[in-house]
């Protein structure tokens, strides 16, 4: 069963970031890691814009769950070398502002391309989150493009780096997407974020 969400806000500038008291689960990853596709698979419909061009997401996008006070937050992809220096500075400033001003983050999902060895930008993201005492979750993407032995090796590698077992996902395999969905809802339960009696919406812009 897909997560029932709505696009709540798109922030291009620091003063557009959401500052209410709803909990937030963050999705971060390198450009072209498949973040938008995975979010759409979790939603069961196309809300996050996808593109064959890396670096398409240039804003902080908040998706509000309809049945509990929680945002799933889609951050701009990092590590796209061909983006202009001005664009990279803008993204960096927006990300710094987001993490500096958001106290309601309960989980940072670091999306990792399962076809590649650990990348420096992913390790930097993990270090950044750890230094801020944020709980992290590894999510391997595009596992349909790997052999079973490659997937197991990547799981072992990242479990050693993270200290917890990462989720292995493919948007072409609904079971893996639903397993991740259950994991996200388990995080909500751990933090006391319960379903609301009236789903409604998370708020108004």
Please sum up the structure shown.
This protein has 205 residues and is an alpha/beta fold.
Descriptive keywords:
seven-stranded mixed β-sheet, alpha/beta, 20% strand, single chain, 205 residues, 5 helices
Explain how this protein is built.
The chain has helices spanning 35-43, 85-101, 120-131, 148-162, 174-190, and strands at 5-11, 23-29, 60-65, 70-74, 105-113, 136-141, 167-168. With 205 residues, it is of the alpha/beta class. It has a seven-stranded mixed β-sheet, sandwiched between helices.
Strand order of the largest sheet: 1-3-4-2-5-6-7
Major sheet characteristics = 7 strands, mixed
Shape: globular
Radius of gyration, taken over Cα atoms and rounded to an integer in Å: 16 Å
Distance between the termini: 27 Å
User: Helices and strands, in N-to-C order?
Assistant: EEHEEHEHEHEH
Structural class: alpha/beta
- Tally the helices: what do you get? 5
Which strand-content bin applies to the residues?
Answer: 15-25%
Low-confidence stretches: 199-205
What's the β-strand tally?
A: 7
Q: Which quaternary structure do these chains form?
A: single chain
Give the proportion of residues in helices. Answer: 25-40%
Q: What's the rounded overall pLDDT mean?
A: 89
């Amino acid at each position: 069963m897909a997560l029932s969400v709505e696009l709540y806000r798109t922030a291009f500038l620091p003063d557009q970031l959401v500052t209410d008291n709803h909990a937030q689960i963050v999705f971060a990853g390198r450009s072209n890691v498949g973040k938008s596709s995975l979010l759409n698979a979790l939603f069961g419909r196309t809300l996050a814009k996808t593109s064959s061009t890396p670096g398409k997401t240039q804003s902080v996008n908040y998706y509000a769950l309809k049945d509990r006070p929680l945002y799933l937050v889609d951050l701009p992809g990092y590590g796209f070398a061909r983006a202009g220096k001005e664009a990279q500075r803008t993204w960096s400033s927006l990300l710094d502002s987001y993490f500096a001003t958001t106290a309601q983050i309960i989980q940072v999902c670091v999306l990792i391309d399962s076809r590649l060895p650990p990348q420096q930008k992913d390790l930097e993201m993990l270090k950044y989150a750890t230094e801020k005492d944020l709980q992290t979750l590894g999510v391997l993407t595009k596992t349909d493009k790997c052999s079973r032995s490659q997937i197991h090796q990547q799981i072992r590698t990242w479990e050693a780096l993270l200290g917890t077992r990462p989720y292995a996902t493919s948007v072409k395999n609904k079971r893996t997407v639903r397993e991740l969905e259950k994991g996200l809802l388990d995080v909500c339960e751990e933090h006391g974020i319960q379903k609301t009696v009236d789903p409604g919406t998370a708020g108004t812009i």
